[in-house]
Amino acid sequence: MNSYGTAQLARVALGYPAIDNHAHPLLKAKHRSLLEFEGLISEASGPALTHDSVHTLACFRATQQLSQALALKGEPTWEAVKQAREAMDYDKLCKTFMDATNIQCILIDDGLGGVSQYAEGYKWHDRFTKSPTKRIVRIEILAEVQIIDEQLENNDLAPYQAYSTFVERLHTSLQASANDPEVVGFKSIACYRTGLDIAVMQDANKIEQSLTMVMLRYEATRKLRLADKLLNDYIVNVALHVSSECGKPVQFHTGLGDNDITLNVSSPSHMQDLIKAYPQAKIVLLHSSYPYTRDAGYLTAVYPNVFLDFGEIFPFLSAEGQASVVRQMLEMTPTNKILWSTDGHWWPESYYLGTKQARETLWKVLAEYVTKQEMTESQAVGIVKGALFDNANRIYNLGLSPNWTEP
After folding, report:
1. What number is the average pLDDT over the span 358-383?
2. Which domains does the chain have, with CATH numbers?
């Protein structure tokens, strides 16, 4: 047996169909060059993105892999990759990278800023998968765009009516999403807005005051962004209540993000009281909770309603860093509670690298355990199938069968 195990483990890890449990839409062809391509390998912005990110191990590795996929000749360079992709027909570019992933189903969060103006609708992505794409509803955007924005623009509510109307519309909108067969789950970005130290106890008077402040700021600035902790915490609690009743999971952005995140409140350890308060709600911790992976693993081990996604570290971390995170995840996390995503967004290459690197990392890490006789190969194969497909299929109640023929 070599250091990467036998052919069976390699075959399954590199080829088993996958459910991408958290991703975002691709850009429309006419907007393909709208955003800095360096966003493929970093969450940074400004000079940290355009200048610094290209000097990371993550970028060096991505350059090698994309150069090979594009069959470029000569010394692989980031600029050569950018020029080659720009020269390709956009449909061919998307097909080249998406077909190579063997993603059978994508669960798309279409609430990412800019999606409605610049990206394709979630159903457009069905052309790349054998099972229909489904939606993840971002709860803060639902509250902003469909509820508060509507109230503010109509400007026909007395101040004392605003709170009761907001509460009613929030419940109604979340319940409508819960009843929609196209929606398989919810997502919160509380981590970005106000942190993961989300309060369970709610004070209606203070929430009403918070809503009033949001409305007053909008009147002064004509800009709306929910970043008031009392109000944001309330929205999360309502979503978890609905989730408890409908059985659709709530994903939480945790850990890894851009400079809008306050890092010390991005650990899921802050969510312990919230997890206890909603034992019937399925809570999915996104993005490996990096750099707090062990915190997340601990929570999955002691609470039956917590699950861990090991996405976004591909391709943002070096290969060694990715392997380290996967090992940390496996230290304590029950293997029936891990699931995978690309966090694919804007560019088809994000889906490609997110899949290729995850498959290779999972294969190599598990093969080490098999070689050390810490698990059998059949157990390792079972972990791969669960992580790539079976666990997400069960957790989101998708009812799919993997498009796979056993050799």
Report:
1. 96
2. 7-36+104-199+233-395 (3.20.20.140)
